[in-house]
Structure formats: C-alpha cells, structure tokens
Amino acid sequence: MPYHLPAECEINALKLPGMGWILLGLTIFFIAGIRNVLFYWGLPIPLRLISQFSGILGGLSLAWGIRKYVRAMQVNRLIRISHRKKVFFWHSLLVAYLVIGLLKGNAWNTVGKEFIILWLFGEFWIIGANDRFWYAVEKPLTIIFYIGAILVFFYYTTPGVVTDAIGSEQMDTGYISNRYINTLGYDLRPLLGSGLFLFVWGVVRPRQDYWRSLQIGALFISFIITVGLFKFRGAAVSYAVLVIFVLLLPTILEK
To answer: What is the pTM of this model?
Structure first.
C-alpha cells in the first residue's frame, strides 16, 4: 500500500496561532515578486524601495508568525535537541557573516536580503516538523504558484524592467533572446519556487480533491516553463531525480 500522511480535518489557517502573520508575510513577498509587472501596468512605484521594505517587512512577519506558532503548538517537543542546536548554530553563523559582510563594505541591502532568506531557512526547519502547518499553507502556496505560472506565460515575451541608482525603466526588445531572458516573465520565476515541494506534497497528501491534482501538476508546469520555455535543460536532471525519489518514497517511509 502507498504511504500517505495521516488524514487531517479541514484546517482554517487563520485560526492557528501565528498563521495570520505567516500569510501576511507570504502576501508581502508575493507583491514584491510582481513589482515589475505593477511597474509595467503604470504604477509609479520605486522598485528598489519596494524590494527593500518588502524583504524586511515580509521576513519579520514570517519570523514572528513562525515563533508564535512554534511556541503555541509546542513544535519543539517534536524535534530532537541536536536538531535545534544545528538550527541555532546556523542562525549564529548567519549573524556573524552579516557583521563581517557589513564591515567589509558590502551593500547593506544585498547582505540583508541574503540574511533574511537564509534566516528563514532555519525557521522553516523548525516549524516544518509539524504537519498541521503544511496543511495550513498548502492552498496559499498553490495559489501563488499558479498565479505566477499564468503571469509567466502571459509576459514571457514582454521586455523586463531594469532598476539602478537613477531609477527604473523598461528594456528594449532587442535584449530578449530566444530563451526569453530579460523579460517580465523571466523575472517572475521566483513565484514558481514552491513547485517541486507542491508536487511531493501532493503525492503523499491523503485528501483526493482538485487541490491535490493541482499540486501534482505543479511539477509539469515547472518543467514546461524552466526547461521548455527558458531552456534551462540542466534542470531536467533535477526533475528526473525528484520523480525517482518520489517513486521510492513510499518504500522509504514505510520502513
């Protein structure tokens, strides 16, 4: 028999502690992810400022929501002490690198962006131990993925936006190659980052509904966009390895 996650009742994400902050953080990151499209639509927004503030506000919102969830749901009781020590070491290392990077004169916005992203890795290594969290965020992640996919297909031939110290402007069509680099669609690829996770989650998800079908289909959409549209053919190996892993996953989990 194939292995599935334990069946769960329908979860109202907003009723879980901290989930409101987590969803707010995801929304902020989503808006930041489509900022170039908003600029293309004619919204006079300072793209660099939006990127900087969204990274800070979105990161803080996610981190605060995760902390509230972890404490209220006692997630640490599900995790070995050795794992918590590794996460603490990871965060300590990031703080050290942040200070070193700033002292060496690196741009604070570049260093800060990397710090926030890598810090959240550690946060998700903790909260991810609780299956209820993934049931709560699966639908928002699925919605973000498919909105991103639609926008990519819609704007993969539209010239992208360049931002520098002076301001932002749209590129000339001559910079678009046969791989559709430097397009608005290409800039939207981060919105598809959850595609591989959604595929694995959909495979082990017990509830048979259209959400599960959409999640499993995320792998094929990601493949079409990454390998077919933007011609990152090396990524095909990653997709093949993932499919092989998922085929072996039931046997691994049963043991």
So the answer is: 0.83
